[in-house]
Amino acid sequence: MPKQNLTELGVQRLTAASQTDFWDTGCAGLAIRVGPRSKTWVLKHQNRRITLGTYPSMGVREAREEARRRIAAPRRAISDLSFQEAAHDYLEHYCRPNNKPSTFQETRRLLKRMPFRGKLENITAHEVQRFIGKLPPGEANHCFSTLRALFNWCAPRGYIHTNPLQGHSKPHRTRSRERVLSIPELRTIWGQADAFGYPFGPLMQLLIVSGQRLNEITSMRRSWISKDTIVFPVEVVKNNAVHEIPLTPLLSELIEKLPAFNDLLFPDRTGTKPYAGHNKAMPRFRKCLPPDIPHFTCHDYRRTFSTLHASPEVGTLPHVTEALLNHRTGTRTPIQRVYDRHTYLPQMREAQHRYEVFLRTHILASANDVR
């Protein structure tokens, strides 16, 4: 744990290949947490690590003042709220106003299945581990993260003294997926998508061509489409910012072929909500494919999209691919993301034109032969 008297110039020059805390000798418990892409002020107080703000928006003087204010504040009395009451407050006062509807619904679902009764303060890490230990790995990790977020929200509000999950890690290691679909696999999938039909077949093709997230395409509306762009509103995108992509010829052709029931491109059976049957359709779709095609998910299309854009035949620059994928992190530094507000739409359009030529040449031209 490096310690030094932090100054503005010193903090500005700090770098670290991995997350490192640099402790301030000028204010007990204060540290600047330096990572490859960001710098965050943290305070260690009452066996808790509290995030104060980020550098450079919060300077050294402001960070010290905020840390001393937090240290001097009287310790709050602990509430007698039950777990259910605290979860209700967390959902209504934090999740509902700050999360997308789908995220709010998923958090509520996870909290409802928690078996905890009685006072929130009495829940121990052992009880949590005993509960999530009975769940499948993916669900166990989701429940753990949801509970940890709830406790982190409750602690500074006086609901509990400390987060019982502080210092604990997710029960199961999350492996980064590396699956990239090959050209022959894409040909087969494209041809089978034609045969599979609406809605799942065209949905697969739009994911391959656009590179967008599954939720963004299933939620897509005709009113978002203009003459030459598609604008995804903040309500459906992951990064909480409007996302605009070019409407290119192949993308336009696929959309024009879709049946026009209403504004939604993929409505559910009621016609009022986006299509949500992809989880049931995907296993049926995989059964129609040759057995030698390994398991893949819808999200693997995005990784394949990025890989093909980087290929010599398409030759898209990394920051343009990131703009198409609506990635906030990657080749640009935090300062560049603050000051560089260029949308790269012309470059995105040129890149997508080259990508569509590649798809027509290597995928669509041969897809009919493998159906």
Plain-language structure description:
The chain has 371 residues and is α+β, with helices and mostly antiparallel strands. It has three domains: 70 residues, 2-Layer Sandwich (Double Stranded RNA Binding Domain), CATH 3.30.160; 75 residues; 188 residues, Intergrase catalytic core (hpI Integrase, Chain A, Orthogonal Bundle). The chain contains 15 helices and seven strands. The strands form two sheets. Strands 1-2-3-4-5 form a five-stranded mixed β-sheet. Helix 3 packs antiparallel against helix 4, helix 7 packs antiparallel against helix 8 and helix 8 packs parallel to helix 12. It is globular. It starts with a strand and ends with a helix.
| Poorly predicted regions | none
CATH superfamily membership of the largest domain, which one?
Answer: Intergrase catalytic core
CATH topology of the largest domain: hpI Integrase, Chain A
Mean pLDDT: 88
Number of helices: 15
Strand content: 5-15%
